[in-house]
């Protein structure tokens, strides 16, 4: 019993100290504590003894506070930092102002075709489908796209979509330059290759020096030839992509994608951070930083999910006949396209939708490139190569041709690759048809009458019902088969050495004797 | 998110690609009002959407007096007729983990999972196949419970624990620290993960060090803060429009989005996703 009461007492005193220390806390604004204030008020009441104190207590308390002089002016100068909100608003304010010198009301020339899409109309349709972004954000993106169009010679611009990152998000614009106006890019590339050349030369010098010192055996392994990347305007590099983190911030052009990056992007699954220069830490190592990974994923998403109603595009018959075999890679808009009824578009057979972006082959290119022919060109001067067996002509990889209907798409883990939907079941006569991709969650398309559009809003990862597991490390190399020619002989023991020496000595003596004998014989002759 | 101002709050998650069409918003406003009345809920929340291959499930939650315990989950496919989901039992949760693949959109669909069991030892070992069937409706209930347990979050101080009964949680306006709560989190607080708490019974309280416990306010800090989550980095915290809004996206349940407007009481969360946990998270960070 005594213990309990003691405990209670202890708790009581603890609570009392806690309460008192709380009351003694000094306000950061006035420098007063409630404890002091109450003490002052109560002592004043006891001194003055006014009538009905409880009614006038608030006034007394206020009087007491007023009596104490506190300066209004803080000694620390007020300097409010610009919040990030204000900073961003200032950046975005430029989007809403017209360019300099355009203040005078200018009537836009109606004849000039602008590559800028009517984003708000598309946003309206996507909203019916229950996908897309805020209208306000869309307006900002639209204005940012307008900015892009004004500053670059572009022929075609599209809002590609938004990819979420862990720190920032990417807003992606898909553009096509006007014919012959993407020179900057070529120059950049030329510089890059030049740099590579110089580094290679340096390496050669090093090797020469080493050779003088010691003859290092060279491995006869040749790495498989690097698959060359596709030219701009073809295959996976058909379109150029610009990204920005927030509308209003500068647009950054993404580098063109190489087949190696695409095939590696298929093997890894990483979150984007939102910084283009961030390294992609993964196994197997990714060739490039996040900008390259982003570009590779964009290429994969585009190839997998950009779809249009059947008949909207058609092959250009005149041109195509001249071309040799291989997939056709250009198409033109079908001016006679009449639109497909919504009911047919949402048919689960999916045969009324076609892919209008080329399939990317396992090689990482859209057009298959034969690695063997290059082998011959490169190593002609090396005689050894000719002796070796010529590798068999590899089977060309083939993908579905352009404008293949979605009905040909593979199933995604035994579920249909696309989910067709109708935007409204209540008013179907005015509804639009919507497609949701199940392979790339976040990819959507809508179509109504003669309009269609694709958009991607998601994390940039392909769907898989199984867990991701990184590719295993390569198998351990086999050891060189051990045979007599590489086996080290055992050292002889001292006894063996002694025995050998004795034997040698005996033999030598015998030989001497023989010689002597012979000499004698000679003399005899 | 709260249904009362759904049309306002849904705008805040629009930047995460979560949009309701006007038809859906109108239907929700009508049907949830009726729902609240019929079930005598104190509050109804629009919980989100689970995407199925053929059809989607819209999920709403109705709450009685106690935010923790009086919680009923309802689902609808057309946003008009709502059906009550059975409460998720631990057994259902175990079974739901075995189901692989996306939801189909048919509540009576049955997922099958075959497990090969080995019976006996040595040469007498025989393999026996055991099939577990999981009804989609049950899986739905289990997944929603899992998501609520794993990622449902609130800003610190949005709920306070009162002296009346230990686990009961009440709206704070009437109770202690109204000033603190009404003004929401400040911008610098909103940037820290420790300012957000899991809306569930605390499970990691005993892991706190003494030093941390000393600074805790028992009326507010009665739930687990987010910075203790494993693995680190399973949340993506971003400010939008400068610092006008803070958005938290869960990386382990992709599709869960939480927003809070610093300096106000406005906060909410929604889940729009396939209802599959991101098991690859450790590889992706």
UniProtKB/TrEMBL annotation, chain A:
Keywords: Cell projection, Cilium, Cytoplasm, Cytoskeleton
GO biological process: axoneme assembly; cilium movement involved in cell motility
Intracellular or extracellular location(s): Cytoplasm, Cytoskeleton, Cilium axoneme
GO CC annotation terms, alphabetical: radial spoke
A Pfam family recorded for this sequence: Radial_spoke
Alphabetical list of PANTHER family matching this protein: RADIAL SPOKE HEAD 6 HOMOLOG A (PTHR13159:SF0), RADIAL SPOKEHEAD-RELATED (PTHR13159)
Protein name as annotated: Uncharacterized protein
Originating species: Capitella teleta
UniProtKB/TrEMBL annotation, chain B:
Keyword GTP-binding: no
Cited Pfam families: Radial_spoke
An annotated GO BP: axoneme assembly
Localization (cell): Cell projection, Kinocilium; Cytoplasm, Cytoskeleton, Flagellum axoneme
Keywords: Cell projection, Cilium, Cilium biogenesis/degradation, Cytoplasm, Cytoskeleton, Flagellum
GO cellular component term of the entry, any: radial spoke
InterPro entries hit by this protein: Radial_spoke, RSP9
Similarity comment text for this entry: Belongs to the flagellar radial spoke RSP9 family.
Classification via PANTHER family: MITOCHONDRIAL RIBOSOMAL PROTEIN S18, RADIAL SPOKE HEAD PROTEIN 9 HOMOLOG
The protein's name: Radial spoke head protein 9 homolog
Organism per entry: Capitella teleta
């Amino acid at each position: 019993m005594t213990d309990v009461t003691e405990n209670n007492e202890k708790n009581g005193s603890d609570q009392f100290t806690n309460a008192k220390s709380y009351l003694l806390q000094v306000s950061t604004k006035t420098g007063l504590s409630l404890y002091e204030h109450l003490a002052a008020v109560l002592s004043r009441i006891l001194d003055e003894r006014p009538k009905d104190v409880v009614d006038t207590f608030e006034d007394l308390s206020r009087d007491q506070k007023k009596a104490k002089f506190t300066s209004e002016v803080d000694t620390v100068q007020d300097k409010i930092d610009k919040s990030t909100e204000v900073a961003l608003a200032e950046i975005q304010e430029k989007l809403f102002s017209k360019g300099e010198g355009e203040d005078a009301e200018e009537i836009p020339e109606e004849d000039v075709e602008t590559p800028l899409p009517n984003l708000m109309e598309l946003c309206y349709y996507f909203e019916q489908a229950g996908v897309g972004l805020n209208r306000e954000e869309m307006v900002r993106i639209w204005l940012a796209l307008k900015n892009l169009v004004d500053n670059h010679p572009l022929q075609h611009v599209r809002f590609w979509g938004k990819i979420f990152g862990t720190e920032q998000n990417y807003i992606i614009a898909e553009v096509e330059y006007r014919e012959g106006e993407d020179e900057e890019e070529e120059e950049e590339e030329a510089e890059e290759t030049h740099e590579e050349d110089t580094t290679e030369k340096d390496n050669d010098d090093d090797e020469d020096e080493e050779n003088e010192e010691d003859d290092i055996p060279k491995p006869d392994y040749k790495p498989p030839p690097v698959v060359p990347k596709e030219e701009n305007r073809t295959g996976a590099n058909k379109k150029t992509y610009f990204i920005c983190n927030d509308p209003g911030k500068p647009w950054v052009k993404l580098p063109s994608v190489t087949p190696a990056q695409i095939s590696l992007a298929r093997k890894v699954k990483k979150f984007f951070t939102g910084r283009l220069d961030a390294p992609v830490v993964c196994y197997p190592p990714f060739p490039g930083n996040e900008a390259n990974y982003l570009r590779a994923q964009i290429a994969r998403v585009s190839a997998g999910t950009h779809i249009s109603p059947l008949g909207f595009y058609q092959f250009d018959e005149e041109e195509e006949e001249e071309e040799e075999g291989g997939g056709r890679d250009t198409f033109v808009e079908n001016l006679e396209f009449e639109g497909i009824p919504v009911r047919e578009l949402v048919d689960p057979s999916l045969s009324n939708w076609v892919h209008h972006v080329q399939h990317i082959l396992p090689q990482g290119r859209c057009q298959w490139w034969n690695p063997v022919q290059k082998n011959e060109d490169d190593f002609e001067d090396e005689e050894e190569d000719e002796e070796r067996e010529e590798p068999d002509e590899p089977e060309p990889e083939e993908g579905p041709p352009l404008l293949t209907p979605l009905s040909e798409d593979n199933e995604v883990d035994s579920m249909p690759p696309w989910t067709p939907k109708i935007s409204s079941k209540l008013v179907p006569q005015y509804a639009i048809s919507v497609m949701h991709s199940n392979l790339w969650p976040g990819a959507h398309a809508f179509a109504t009458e003669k309009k269609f559009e694709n958009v991607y809003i998601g994390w940039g990862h392909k769907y898989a019902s199984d867990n991701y597991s990184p590719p295993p490390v390569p198998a351990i190399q086999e050891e060189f088969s051990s045979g007599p020619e590489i086996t080290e002989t055992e050292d002889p023991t001292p006894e063996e050495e002694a025995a050998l020496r004795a034997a040698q000595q005996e033999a030598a003596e015998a030989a001497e004797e023989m010689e002597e004998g012979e000499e004698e014989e000679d003399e005899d002759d | 998110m709260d249904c009362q101002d759904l049309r306002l709050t849904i705008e805040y998650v629009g930047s995460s690609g979560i949009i309701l069409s006007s038809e859906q918003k109108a239907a929700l406003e009508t049907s949830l009002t009726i729902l609240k009345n019929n079930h005598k809920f104190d509050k109804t929340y629009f919980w989100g959407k689970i995407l199925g291959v053929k059809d989607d499930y819209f999920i709403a939650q109705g709450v009685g007096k106690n935010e923790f315990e009086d919680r009923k989950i309802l689902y609808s496919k057309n946003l008009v007729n709502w059906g009550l989901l059975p409460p998720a039992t631990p057994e259902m949760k175990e079974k739901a983990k075995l189901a692989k693949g996306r939801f189909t959109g048919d509540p009576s669909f049955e997922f099958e999972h075959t497990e090969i069991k080995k019976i006996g030892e040595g040469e007498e070992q025989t393999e026996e196949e055991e099939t577990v069937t999981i009804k989609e409706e049950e899986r739905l209930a289990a997944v929603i419970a899992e998501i609520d347990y794993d990622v449902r979050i609130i800003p610190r101080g949005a709920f306070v624990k009162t002296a009346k009964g230990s686990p009961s949680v009440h709206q704070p306006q009437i109770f202690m620290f109204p000033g603190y709560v009404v003004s929401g989190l400040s911008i610098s607080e909103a940037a820290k993960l420790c300012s957000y708490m899991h809306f569930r019974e605390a499970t990691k309280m005993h892991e706190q060090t003494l030093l941390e416990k000393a600074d805790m306010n028992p009326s507010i800090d009665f739930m687990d803060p987010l910075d203790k989550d494993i693995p680190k980095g399973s949340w993506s915290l971003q400010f939008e429009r400068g610092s006008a809004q803070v958005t938290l996206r869960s990386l382990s349940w992709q599709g869960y989005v939480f927003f809070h407007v610093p300096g106000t009481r406005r906060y909410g969360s929604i889940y729009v996703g396939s209802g599959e946990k991101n098991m690859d998270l450790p590889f992706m960070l």
